[in-house]
Amino acid sequence: MSVCRVIFYPQNKKVTVKKSTSLLDAVSKAHISINNLCGGDGICGRCKMVVKEGEVAAEVSPKLTREEIKNGVVLACMTRVEGDLVIQIPEETLAKEKISADLDAERFKDFEQTILLEEFEPTPLVRKVYLELEPPTLVNNTADHERLCEALCKKIGDCETQMGLKIIKSLPSILRRNKFQVTATVGLRGHVAEIMNVEGGNTADKNYMVIVDMGTTTVVAHLVDAISLKTIDAKACFNSQGIYGREVTRRMIHAERRGSGELQKLIIRDINRLITTLANANGINLKDITAVVCAGNPAMGHFLLGLPTPNIRRYPYVANTVHPPPLRAAQVGIEINPRALLYSLPGISAWVGSDITAGILATKIHERDDITLLVDIGTNGETVIGSKEWIVAASASAGPALEGASVACGMRAARGAVESVYIEDGEIKYSTIGNGTPKGICGSGIIDIVSVLLKKNIIDRSGLFIESSSDRIMSENGLKRFILVPEDKEKNLKPVYITESDIENVITAKAAIFAAIKILTMRLDLNFEDIERVYLAGAFGKRIDIDNAITIGLIPSIPKIKIQFVGNTSIRGAKIVAFYQQAFYKIAEIRNSTTYYDLMGADDYVEEFKKALFLPHTDIEQFQPIK
Amino acid sequence: MSVCRVIFYPQNKKVTVKKSTSLLDAVSKAHISINNLCGGDGICGRCKMVVKEGEVAAEVSPKLTREEIKNGVVLACMTRVEGDLVIQIPEETLAKEKISADLDAERFKDFEQTILLEEFEPTPLVRKVYLELEPPTLVNNTADHERLCEALCKKIGDCETQMGLKIIKSLPSILRRNKFQVTATVGLRGHVAEIMNVEGGNTADKNYMVIVDMGTTTVVAHLVDAISLKTIDAKACFNSQGIYGREVTRRMIHAERRGSGELQKLIIRDINRLITTLANANGINLKDITAVVCAGNPAMGHFLLGLPTPNIRRYPYVANTVHPPPLRAAQVGIEINPRALLYSLPGISAWVGSDITAGILATKIHERDDITLLVDIGTNGETVIGSKEWIVAASASAGPALEGASVACGMRAARGAVESVYIEDGEIKYSTIGNGTPKGICGSGIIDIVSVLLKKNIIDRSGLFIESSSDRIMSENGLKRFILVPEDKEKNLKPVYITESDIENVITAKAAIFAAIKILTMRLDLNFEDIERVYLAGAFGKRIDIDNAITIGLIPSIPKIKIQFVGNTSIRGAKIVAFYQQAFYKIAEIRNSTTYYDLMGADDYVEEFKKALFLPHTDIEQFQPIK
Predict the structure, then answer these.
(1) Domains in chain A, ordered, with CATH?
(2) Which residues on A lie below 8 Å from B136 (Cβ)?
């Protein structure tokens, strides 16, 4: 098998691959993030690259113009490496922002700095406990292992302990070298306290955890202090698995062909990069991070652990596990303290994951007498309706448009992202994050712009541009776009715009979510009026304009006072579990008492989805405020 | 560092060692078992070998005659390899019997074939449970992991389960390939049920365990059927660690110098050889052995797991652990099912181990209203006195004489071992195991012969031969011996005899044990009359002559009706734990409620020991029956 060397510019990164490897795999191997969306099926046409030197076998794609083909442009996913190559990656192909620039998660951390619950005693899943053991005497010559366990249980309350052979073996020396004054790191495994580590002296003041929300499109990580229960910092990035498909289904197909190892490596790499960035930025030693608590949809949960996914996407849709045991984080390649634990929170079914159980926990649906609707806006839009009597959850495939992906100028909420679009004095105005030079549009801006275009009659109810309605509608390659920020070469401003195709993606996304809400309320024999409270969740930074969300028909027209944007409830719920062992048991109860409703099995889901493919909806009666 | 090749005859085994390695280490590396007792300190003089070719650096030892030195005889422990060697090992140096010939443990297994306790439901520590899971449907699409755990808990009763990532990962494929009919192997870890293995079909009819008693001198293994709770077979061997010292203290010193790895390897090798022999002899596949349950003294327990022992032998005598967690047996090198568990039972202190907690469990001392004395005769003689109100345990260093070691013609209870010596028609007679040609004397025979010699006035109360008392007293190299079986070259009979030095070793052993009993009763303010029941335990096969044990003063003169020989209670207790999970919790309670009494800290122990260095005792008043 011959081997080829591929050099990528402008990164100047070299990789060696086997002949006939796809160029997409070579890019992945080079750790270069690109905007690819379709997962390597030649559909999205966004993995364009220029072959500067060397031989490739490239399929012809309708996504390329003749001019591009002449200039050596190929789609990486449809090109095989046949010899040593020099490849130029155009700027538009590259993923637009880096982790270090992401402000979304960071802004969100202000949402709630410290989580202090009155009902529970703070008991982090992994604790550091300083112990001053009584040195042994002839009268008290209890063995080292039992001496430590007894002292620990006395300090943290009645517990069953567990300790690995290696730690037991190290005790005689550690205890005596440190005059029997040591710090035990104690992690919860089921109802057993694992003494994961014992070190000399008092190191109990340094104990950090990382809370991760693994979205299909976005991975968010919060660094928290397990002693003060404060959030120190937060970062987010696009999920690198996007290279193998923007929907989890495509990624699962990829995993079935090639094993789930590749997808696992990518999510672990993302998590490691987020953790390293967070630790470096805050002067925290990776060895002081003792736990990672992860929530996410079931497919992501499976990829994280390298579990097989074929039965998730096939009838009758069965997960490998919805509640994996705590593992050594190092076992899956997470680079923190080598003894640290990785907690995967429990999910509900093959299609409703731990991000939702965490969301239920965070919003306390399971404690309330009246009915709450929780809508988690993500690539999978999950809908939960319930009270303390019963909870039902469903999942709809919305696509990533509302997260700023699959939109031409979409970006994550970094500096310069248009986060808000509004009408002032009859004019369409916008504001950017950090008042930066506008570079693209993030999720909240996308909802706003579609709403504003509708209100200003620039698009019609099907999302198409209305001829001559605005002089800012332009056409390029036959595709219409609305220019929000015009190009200005002097100011080095690139244009920021939204295309008809982008708007179609937004409509598809909101229709999938709305139809899910509709079907669920119908099945439960509820009217929208019966819903006492609507929580709108998502990794949207600080804001989402609720009026605009109703305007485009993302959520039903319910009195605004009942609706609240609650941010990333997946992270919040996971944080509560990380800080309170009782919440760890509570979330398992929530998993058991929540019923999964399968929308794919609902005959009328597609019908409701089609009805919602208008702005706000085919049946405008349902949306009083904008009738 | 130059390397030397050493060939041992008659085994024709070759090993390569570094120059300057001791010849004893070379023998160990060649896996040749020898009769060495002192642990390589040049004291016992039993590791004699003949250097046939090659260069050695040998110290001169008073244990060698000039003749021997001229003939190239060296003590292996005091000889360093300086070049390639050819070594002849004399027959008397070799360990006398092989595992396959050992009958002691085998005979003992008849002692109690099946252990059925009325008070507990049979629940082996490792169970195989056949499960016919309901295949998933849209209505019941519980994940594979949770489906299996729920079905299991339903079948075995309420439980918290634990499953490793590798097993979870294998479930989708195993379940579907086997139509959801699988056998789960479930092991107890604390109060959690670990699903250790899941395999297709119904394999629940094959589940075996090995119960091991790790004595300082003797290692006994019983192969048991975890379904019928029957003992299938039993084997024993001398503990190969003997090469590094007959007492655990010497071995601990060795471990401190060179790490506990070497000692661990030897005990694991013994256990593996016993298991392989048992499995082969009974047509059992090693992969169907799912657990090993070990009891033994604390030092052996530490060596088994490779734990450091320095603090056991140093003031204030602290063990690394008295209750190690269950481990994967493969983790320490035990070659059975790779997922099988190794249970080390809980001991009491650095000097009273799990053989004694197992003995208490087996004899039910902890359940009785009246007072029981349990004497476990081994290289460490342990004494337990107690009732359901309180239990006290002590350990005395007796040496291995009563186990047939450190006695010139001593051997384990194999075919041909003199197991009984008695007076008939005024004559000293004997019987051998299996009526075989007499080859040596085992433990019970040693107690008998000393008693008989005393009764016949052939030895005096200090254990010395009485001049002209018998024509069977011979002298060789100035050492007196009593010939039990004379040499008969025609019949190819080697002489079997007992020396004055052997008798001294026996007296030392019994004195250590008697003094322990004495001190403990004194401290508890008891008279021998207060003891309602005496259990005499030990790996002695079927019998020990209680009259003779009293005659030599091994145990106090207590009405014979109160005394019972109960065999190997360590194995029996371990078996009860292996079969009954409730006993697993019970033995942990016994550990907690038993007080260790340190004889070394007792000012009057040495005094009592010295008083007992007579037959039966200095104070003959205490021994009415033979006054």
Answers:
(1) 3-94 (3.10.20.30), 126-200 (3.10.20.880), 208-344 (3.30.420.480), 354-401+506-626 (3.30.420), 415-495 (no CATH)
(2) 316, 318
Q: What is the ipTM of this complex?
A: 0.85
- Out of A161-165, A507-511, B43-47, pick the least confident: B43-47
Chain A residues with CB-CB distance to B171 below 8 A: 320-321
| Ramachandran class of A160: left when φ > 0, alpha when ψ lies in -120 to 50, beta otherwise | beta
How many beta-carbon contacts under 8 Å exist across A and B?
143
Residues 6+ positions from B623 with CB-CB distance below 8 Å: B550, B553, B556, B557, B616, B617
At residue A338, what is the residue type?
A: P
A194 near B CB under 8 A: no
Long-range contacts of B433-437 (CB under 8 A, 24+ apart): B433/B103, B433/B107, B433/B541, B434/B103, B437/B491, B437/B492, B437/B493
Residues B617 and B505: their CA atoms lie apart, in Å, by: 15
Ranges of chain B whose pLDDT falls below 70: 1, 35-41, 43, 95-116, 541-542, 624-627
State whether A138 and B316 contact (CB < 8 Å): yes
Buried b (16+ CB within 10 A) or exposed e, B246-283: bbbbbbbbbbeeeebebbbbbbbebbbbbbebbbeeee
What does each C-alpha distance from B341 to B174, B208, B209 come to in angstroms? 22, 12, 10
Tokens of A119: 């009902």
Q: Who contacts A30 (Cβ-Cβ below 8 Å, separation ≥6)?
A: A6, A8, A11, A13, A14, A15
Percent of chain A whose predicted confidence (pLDDT) is above 90: 69
For B70, phi then psi, to 5°, come to -60, -35
Helix pair angle (A165-177, B298-305), 10° resolution? 110
CA distances from A132 to A154, A197, B115 (A): 12, 16, 45
By Cβ distance, the residue of A141, A168, A317 closest to B320 is A168
pLDDT for the residue B1: 63
Closest to B295 (Cα-Cα) out of B239, B232, B359, B233: B359
Number of H helices, E strands in chain A: 15, 29
Q: With contact defined as beta carbons under 8 Å apart, do B489 and B504 qualify?
A: no
Q: Report the candidate in A89, A37, A34 with the shortest Cα–Cα distance to residue A403.
A: A37
Q: What DSSP string describes B354-398?
A: HHHHHHHHHHTGGG-SS-EEEEE-SSEEEEEEE-SS-EEEEEEE-
Is A165 close to B327, i.e. CB distance below 8 A?
yes
Stated length of chain A: 627
**Chain A: residue nearest B160 by CA?**
A190
Of A169, A172, A191, the CB nearest to B160: A191
Contact present, A209 and A222 (Cβ < 8 Å) = no
C-alpha to C-alpha distances, B113 to A100, B228, B232, B234, B575, nearest whole angstrom: 71, 10, 8, 11, 11
A550-595 pLDDT tens trace? 999 999 988 999 999 888 899 999 999 999 999 999 999 999 999 9
Per-position DSSP letters for A144-203, written without gaps between them: HHHHHHHHHHHHH-S-EEEE-HHHHHHHHHHHHHTTTEEEEEEEEETTEEEEEEEEES--
Q: Residue B342's closest chain A neighbor by CA?
A: A165
Q: Which pTM was predicted?
A: 0.85
DSSP code, position A415: T
Burial of A474 (0-12, 13-18, 19+ CB in 10 A): middle
B-contacting residues of A 315-374, CB under 8 Å?
Answer: 315-325, 327, 331, 349-350
As a whole number of angstroms, the distance between CA A377 and CA B564 comes to 77
* Distance of alpha carbon B551 from alpha carbon B554, whole angstroms: 8
